[in-house]
């Protein structure tokens, strides 16, 4: 089955106080548990915003340069994501709608490329 990335940029969350956010965590965790029970869950998680480390790896100079901080200064950054293993786009959209509703902000859906399996060594 194809795998899909359900994700949001942190800027899509909007400005809300702690009281607004407090009930969102249990709702999102409930959808994650529902994904697990349905057998479509691969991974889900939110990314640390300000306190977590951010590194970039840039190979364009001929050597890989690993530095602190994002590669490009931008106002948008990935806030969190889930990966689901589902049969089709409609099912991926179903789960995206459930997690977006639980979180209270928009999510985008992207299908991972389907690469052919490596040749067997028979």
Automatic annotation (TrEMBL):
Domain of life of the organism encoding this protein: Bacteria
Residues of the YCII-related domain: 30-99
A Pfam family that the UniProt record links to this protein: YCII
Stated family: Belongs to the YciI family.
Protein name per UniProt: YCII-related domain-containing protein
């Amino acid at each position: 089955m194809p795998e899909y990335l359900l994700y949001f940029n942190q800027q899509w969350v909007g400005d809300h106080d702690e009281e607004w956010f407090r009930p969102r965590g249990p709702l999102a965790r409930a959808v994650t548990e529902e994904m697990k029970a349905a057998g479509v869950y691969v991974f889900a998680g939110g990314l640390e915003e300000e306190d977590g480390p951010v590194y970039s790896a840039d190979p364009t100079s001929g050597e890989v340069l690993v530095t602190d901080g994002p590669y490009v200064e931008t106002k948008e950054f990935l806030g969190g994501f889930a990966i689901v293993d589902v049969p089709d786009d409609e099912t991926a959209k179903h789960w995206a709608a459930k997690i977006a509703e639980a979180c209270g902000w928009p999510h985008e859906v992207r299908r991972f490329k389907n690469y052919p399996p490596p040749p067997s060594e028979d």
